Amino acid sequence: MIVARTRAELAEGLSDLRDDGGAVTLVPTMGFLHEGHLSLVDFAGEQADHVAASIFVNPLQFGPSEDFDQYPRDEVRDLALLEQRGAGLVFIPGTEEMYPSGEPVVTVDPGPLSERLCGAFRPGHFRGVLTVVAKLFGLVRPEVAAFGRKDFQQAVLIRRMVRDLDLGVEVVTGPIVRESDGLALSSRNRYLSREERAQAPAIQRGMRAATELFESGERSAERLLDTVRAAIGTHELLRLQYAELVDPESLEPVDAAHDGAVLAVAAFCGRTRLIDNVVLGEDRA
Length: 285
Fold this sequence. Notes:
By secondary structure, this protein is α/β, with parallel strands linked by helices. The strands form 2 sheets. The protein has a 6-stranded parallel beta sheet with strand order 1-4-3-2-5-6, with helices on both faces. It has a 3-stranded antiparallel beta sheet with strand order 7-8-9. The chain contains 10 helices and 9 strands. The protein has 2 domains: about 170 residues, Rossmann fold; about 90 residues, Pantoate-beta-alanine ligase, C-terminal domain (Pantoate--beta-alanine Ligase, Chain: A,domain 2, 2-Layer Sandwich), CATH 3.30.1300.10.
């Protein structure tokens, strides 16, 4: 596995990788990898001949009061896991390598799609995400890029950026990977105390109950959302930030539930912000 830390090393590594021919799938990550990331590496390998991963904790997507300095990091472990899963190249730039002139003057404006769901509570977050993803696309020039569906809004925005700016990258999304009790895997799960960890799966249980209602014929978005709110509201360590049923392309709320609509939730468990989603008609109860 090729490990590149500079732009020059990346260019050389990509040249070596492509000497064998074939396409490259990029898997951008912020590291501290879990099985969700690794399953995405497996998924990426099904999309193209070579898998290139990146590990970069991007300061542009963290707000002033968020956890950039505390975000978990374990480079040695991450590299070993990526090599075990067959990644051909890993790009690990420092902040100065990624932003050699400091914070960029020109950034990617995510537009109105970023003003809903997570974007309504994290101003500037998606501008930072799209800017770093656009830079990674420019540096790696992948044919395919793979993202996890847990970050649903992020995937929608990246796909729209690629389409609107003609970036020529196919964006694919891999499924959400969960713990045995239903909690979606996240690097931030390590922040949870034992008591918080015990209550966190109520988020997924609420979404599963709403999915069961939908499958039994309920089509009122408000009733489905009330089911989620009730499940979360009975746990004192959980605080709902939003629960919405939205169109998968426009991210606008829908009144009548239908196949393909996305039930998206964000909640704080103690001080840790957790997100999750289900696609009605696709994710079974």
